[in-house]
Amino acid sequence: MQKNTTNTQVMSMTSRDVLTDILRQGAQEMLTMAVENFGGFGRPGLTGAEAIQRVSADVLVEATPTNLTDGEPGKTHIFTAVEKGMDVVSANKGPFVLFYKELGELARKNNCRLHISAATAAALPTLDVARVCLAGTRVLSVEGILNGTTNYVLSRMKEEGCSYDVALKGAQQLGIAETDPSFDVEGKDTASKMVLISNRIFGMSSGIKDIKIEGITKVSLEDISRATRDEKVIKLIGSAELINGKVELNVAPKLLDKEHPLASVNGPEKAISYMTDTMGRITVMGGKSSPVGAAAALLKDLINAHTKSS
Amino acid sequence: MQKNTTNTQVMSMTSRDVLTDILRQGAQEMLTMAVENFGGFGRPGLTGAEAIQRVSADVLVEATPTNLTDGEPGKTHIFTAVEKGMDVVSANKGPFVLFYKELGELARKNNCRLHISAATAAALPTLDVARVCLAGTRVLSVEGILNGTTNYVLSRMKEEGCSYDVALKGAQQLGIAETDPSFDVEGKDTASKMVLISNRIFGMSSGIKDIKIEGITKVSLEDISRATRDEKVIKLIGSAELINGKVELNVAPKLLDKEHPLASVNGPEKAISYMTDTMGRITVMGGKSSPVGAAAALLKDLINAHTKSS
User: Which value does ipTM take for this structure?
Assistant: First the structure.
């Protein structure tokens, strides 16, 4: 036996791990049971809301696409579930960005909980870190690189010395940027996430309209080169800062010193940095920007929702 | 009203924040009450263990210095508390590094919980991130810069081109390194933290003897310069890696590519990086390395111990 190897097979000892296994193995079975017990699945014309109404379940996992116009169809799904007293785990930002206050009040009234990790940068743990790891501190400010596409475009402009248009086209060819990239490059995706993060952390009820938003569409190669000459980096930063008891929300390209912990976050990576009173600055980075990463964030919320802190 | 400012004073809405306030305000009051109700405090000859025996309390907060020889006096304090069924929040690594298995079994038997965030890199959230933010993933490997002193010395050698001895003396003059720095520079502090982190994450019962430990005392300026020329960085890394179902534990100076998320962690900063199956890599860095940072980590554990996940 090597000195640096333990002599037992690795065994899980936390109830959380056991729960994970049950959830992983059980999900398929539960789904099968739900479909068998509820004859209506797959019936033409059956809506999601009707299914939620009729199925007996404790939790709704919402994963329809984000819609910032009216929040549908997620809005109806989530309101229906919360009206019934179901907990919600959501990867969909829309309903929470648009109806944060209303959903919060309804959930409190019906004694159910809303879990939105997957909606706020997916596998990058933004809200969990604030809620658990910073418990007892006062958060003074939050800065985040919350959108992988824009960070990829800015990183590529810097590394290859190419224009915004060329970098964006490259990102589209790799499938990192969407055909219509406006939601990302105009800063709206970052702003949506900042709404959710700042509402949770600072107990606010802000909406997109409360954020001053500037995207990356006007960042020129000259801006990037000048920053590099000055030993700085340009990043699209979503920020919330506590100033005289009020929270200022911003999304804009910012010049960061190269020592700033977000300065070295490159490519499609995301990160968030919290400044606190008693713990100083704590920064988290990484987390797969992929459907698997988002699904893992949903599973995480589902597990944490049903586990006492240990 | 400015567009980017919310129009309400910031109000806390989470039960966790309310609890924080109660704890902050209540700690002084509780301490006064405990002293008043228990006439023995301050009596010459009264031991910590006797006080723990006689006072009626739910939680022991242990903050005596780490002792890796026999774990005292913390060992007696913690065993006494757990025998009584008290939860323990500890900043003291010693008893957990030496008696991890015994304390774990006793705590399970007496239905109490052991919270050791403050003992495992204090304000840098190592265990919380693994437990909450990575719930549902399989951790494949852990790499950490877990000791501020050694990271400061290596950073200074690189930045100033000075020898190990000169950098260490500078760290001692600034109060970053202790007069006897051996616990830090020989890698034992990092190894102690790796024991706790890997035991929690992988459900092991390892001790210091299971770790191959190499400190930074043999790192020469030449090594550092060669690394810089090769666009790499030397960092003292504690690591745990899952290989064929077994966990390999190591502490050693390692060459990191400059793109590695731990490569940009400089000065007395600490960081930990988790590689997972479904979320990819997630890295946390920062957290004040100070008595305030350690106290904040104790408060965090105390709050999380008494809050359901929300």
Answer: 0.89
